[in-house]
Design goal:
This is Zinc ribbon domain-containing protein. This protein has two helices and five strands, in the order E-E-H-E-E-E-H. With 78 residues, it is of the alpha+beta class. The protein has one domain (2-26, 33-77). Helix 1 (35-49) packs parallel to helix 2.
Length: 78
Amino acid sequence: MRKCPSCAEVVKAEAVVCRFCQRELPAIEAPVKTQAQYEEEMLILMDKYSIFFDGFNYFYKKEKFPTFAAALEQAKAA
C-alpha cells in the first residue's frame, strides 16, 4: 500500500491510477543497493559457501575463479 501524492488516499502498491482522484500515480522505483550493502551481502555469501579471496582471485574448494560470481555459481551448484 502507498499514498497517492495528489489526494493522500491509500491505494494499492501496484496501482497505476488513483481510484479516488483518478490521477496517474508515479512508478515505484526499485531500491538500489549501496556499495556497502553489496559488500555486506557478498561477505555473508563468502562465509556461507566458504569462498576465499586472496586479493586477486576467489577460491572455492582449492579451485581458482577470476570473479566472485563464478566462484559463487560453482559453490551453489555443488
